[in-house]
Structure formats: C-alpha cells, structure tokens
Amino acid sequence: MGELIGYEVADRVAVITINRPEVRNAINYQAAQEMAEALDRFDSDPEATVGILTGADGMFCAGMDLKAISSGGKRPISESRGAFGICTHPPEKPLIAAVERFALGGGLEIALACDLIVVADDAKLGLPEVKRGLVAAAGGVLRLPRLIPRAIAKELVLTGDPLSAQRALELGLVSSVTSPGEALAGARSLAARIAVNAPLAVRTAKRLVDESADWSITEAFERQHPLVQVVRESDDAREGALAFVEKRPPVWTGK
Fold it and tell me: Using CA atoms, how far apart are residues 233 and 70, in angstroms rounded to an integer?
C-alpha cells in the first residue's frame, strides 16, 4: 500500500499494518496520510468485508510521533479522516484492532476508532495525556465514556492511569483477551466469523449501530427503514434465503 502502512486481503479480511517499529509504530504525518488511503481502499475493496488494524513487530501503536513533531514535522492529521488518518472518520466497514503490548494515548484513540478490540493479556490501555499537560482530543475523551461506565471513563481520563487487559474485558471495552503474541490471531478468528456474512448487511448493520446511539426509539425505526429496505431487496438477501432452503453456504455478491 505504502511505505508506512501495509494492506493485504485474504478470505475477505483486510489486514492493515502500521509499519514503523523503530518508533513503536507511532504515527507521523506521512503515516496518517497513508492510513487514510488504506482505509479508503478498504471501504472500496469488493474483496474485503471486514478489516484488522495491527502493528508490526508485536506492538500496536504508540500514538503520535512526538519526536517528529518536536523536530518541526506536521501533526499527523488527514484532511479526510482526521487525527492519525482514522479518528474523525473511521471506515464504513467493520474494523478490529489487534493490540499487543500497549495502546496508550493516541494508540488507544486509534483502537477506540475501531469497532472491536482484541488485546493481548499483558497489554496496557490508557489515556495518559493529562500527565503531559494535554487532553486526549483525538476521540479519547469523547468515545471512552460511550463505551464504558462514565465514572470509570472519567477516572481514566483524569488520572491518566492505565487499564489492564482483564479489566478492559470486564468493562466491555475489548471483545476478547488472548495470550501475549496472539492478538492478531484472535482478531483473525473474530474477523473470519464476520467475513462469512453478507457484506451489504454487515456494512449496514455497523452503520445503524453507530448512528442510532442518540436516536429516540420511534425515530430509530423510521430512520433505519430506508437502509434496511435496501438490504431486504438485495441480491444477497435472496441468496441468503435460497442457500438456507437448499442447505448450502451462500455465495455473496455484495449487491
């Protein structure tokens, strides 16, 4: 895909890899632009139903490349997708973060922009920005209170203290915890369970979950109708019913 962000697809699963291990996969300006390009490719790729975001050399992402910034580099912001090339406008398709070792600061904000998180048992997650005189403004203070109890989110944001993988699992912040070094394998297993489903239905279901959070229940049924109707009238809906009757695996076209 690019020098800093890798992209590959197999079995309807796209794997997007941050490839800057010499700086713990921290994101600089170029990496943010490549991240946005990789997500654009993912959203438009007819061969990919679900994606995994991971980091090279057994580590996830250290967030912003502070050394690059201190040397006069541009902040890692994409015009189209925001901070780190993902935080303001994540992909339309489901994306799973595979976290090894740490997801701190911007690294956690990148993970929070994903739909699901699989984390290694020894990994640490947190938003230590206040310890550095900053605010986790790339989605940290906005997304975390929507995903875990508000009081716990405030504690994490205001203290800057890290969260263990097991505690994150207890709070429902992550989907599953694996042995160290197995987060990517765990994410692949989860992705495979999503990838067997109809692409249009998966994409629409994700959109409705994301967008309906602040809809009233009456409004929600009204607003979901046109989107759900497209799925109901799709070739894939007909194929799903036919495959069920014929007792065979469906062959999806995404249409």
Answer: 54
pLDDT band at 27 (very low <50, low <70, confident <90, very high): very high
Local confidence band at 71 (pLDDT 50, 70, 90 cut-offs)? confident
Cα–Cα dist 254/44, whole Å: 12
Second CATH level (architecture) for the domain 5-195: Alpha-Beta Complex (3.90)
d(CA 160, CA 175): 22
Residue 244, pLDDT score: 95
Catalytic machinery residues: 109, 129
